[in-house]
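Human: You know discrete backbone vocabularies at least as well as I do. Show me how you would write down a chain together with its backbone fold. No explanation is needed for now; the record alone will do.

Assistant:
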Amino acid sequence: MARRPAKRKTPGHGAKTPKLLSAMAANPRNDWRIEQLVSVAEKIGLAVHPPKGGSHYVFSSDQVRETHLTVPYKRPIKPVYVRLFAEFCRAHLDRREASNG
């Protein structure tokens, strides 16, 4: 029986995460759901704070200290929030990579 080649993963997060981030950045109008944003955030190490009596999720990073990102739970998520989320994730990944050497 032939062995399957191992899937290549980017260090620190799942193989699909960069693809999903790229898809979000390339097509922010694609009816994205908050569950997809939360999944990506958790995989790359962002802190996710679900709403407590409100309607917004808050994403924060130990790498991007000067800001956090607030995204309304309402579906579909407006393209501007998806674009901001993708930029925030990229900034987190870039700074994490730079701090690791």
